[in-house]
Design a protein that fits this description.
- This protein is α/β, with parallel strands linked by helices.
- The protein has 12 helices and 6 strands.
- It has a single domain, classed as Uracil-DNA Glycosylase, subunit E (3-Layer(aba) Sandwich), CATH 3.40.470.10.
- It has a 6-stranded mixed beta sheet with strand order 1-3-2-4-6-5, sandwiched between helices.
- It starts with a helix and ends with a helix.
């Protein structure tokens, strides 16, 4: 065996020994809990701390005066949605101004997920104002209240006593709006905070239309105008709200699910007709 061959064998043995040593060191580190490599070599944190303590402060290293830190602006107080709605609604002097105020109101999160602002439909000179709960899918698409299956049933119900949203005659007309102007996701019930936020707009809406009679359809408008819930107990019983006679009725969507309740709804419609005939 030549000298060159012997040296090659020795080098190979050393490489193998170094590899096994490195593998053993790595296994030891894993056993010790090391799970991340931050550098190629160990860092003496005590030495770093001593070096940092010995370093002169920044003010001594720079002769330029430090610029005064700009004061942070004070956080803007959160707006009270109900107070803003109350002020905006009160400033509306007409239905068109109120419509624009509602469309410009950005504090209700329901607006972010809605396609359209559903303001109203019908004749604003009508004697009867119908107040519903909130737009559904069809209403959100068309931008008008009560246009889906429940709305079609509502039209047939009131046509039976001679009233229509399409009538130009105020004596035979209906004006229709909702407590909520935007569709709640998944057609869920409006939350109390959302109802409170819209209540100033609802109150101003009724003041501007100035109907003789208000008909509320369902729990949400009943709660918004009277502060009470329980439409099945309240329906058919006349009360007063905003200085006007108010008749609670079950929502047409409820009647679609419970056709037997249409008999009670017909009795309510006859009571409305009798009131208007006085």
């Amino acid at each position: 065996m030549g000298i060159e061959t012997a040296m090659t064998g020795i080098a190979a043995e050393r490489i193998a020994a170094d590899w096994h040593a490195a593998l053993a060191a790595l296994a030891w580190q894993l056993d010790a809990g090391v799970d991340e490599v931050l550098g190629e070599g160990p860092v003496d944190r005590f030495a770093l701390a001593a070096e940092t303590a010995a370093r002169p402060p920044a003010s001594a290293r720079s002769t330029a005066p430090a610029a005064a830190a700009a004061p942070k602006p004070a956080p803007r107080p959160a707006e009270d949605p109900v107070a803003v709605a109350r002020a905006v609604a009160a400033a509306a002097g007409s239905l068109e101004a109120l419509r624009e105020a509602v469309q410009g109101f950005e504090l209700c999160d329901l607006k972010k997920g809605a396609r359209n602002t559903v303001f109203s439909d019908g004749n604003p000179k009508a004697r009867v104002l119908i107040l519903g709960e909130a737009p559904g899918r069809d209403e959100d698409i068309e931008g008008k209240p009560f246009v889906g299956r429940a709305g079609q049933l509502l039209d047939r119900m009131f046509a039976a006593i001679g009233l229509s949203r399409h009538s130009p005659d105020a004596e035979a007309a209906l004006y229709i709006t909702n407590v909520m102007y935007w569709r709640p996701p998944g057609n869920r019930d409006p939350e109390p905070a959302e109802i409170a936020m819209m209540q100033p707009f609802v109150t101003r809406h009724i003041e501007l239309v100035d109907p003789e009679v208000i008909v509320v359809m369902g729990n949400t408008p009943l709660s918004a105008l009277t502060g009470h819930r329980g439409i099945l107990r309240a329906r058919g019983n006349w009360v007063t709200a905003l200085g006007r006679p108010l008749l609670p009725m079950t929502h047409p969507a409820y009647l679609l699910r419970n056709p037997i309740a249409k008999r009670e709804a017909w009795a309510d419609l006859l009571a409305l007709k009798a009131r208007l005939g006085r």
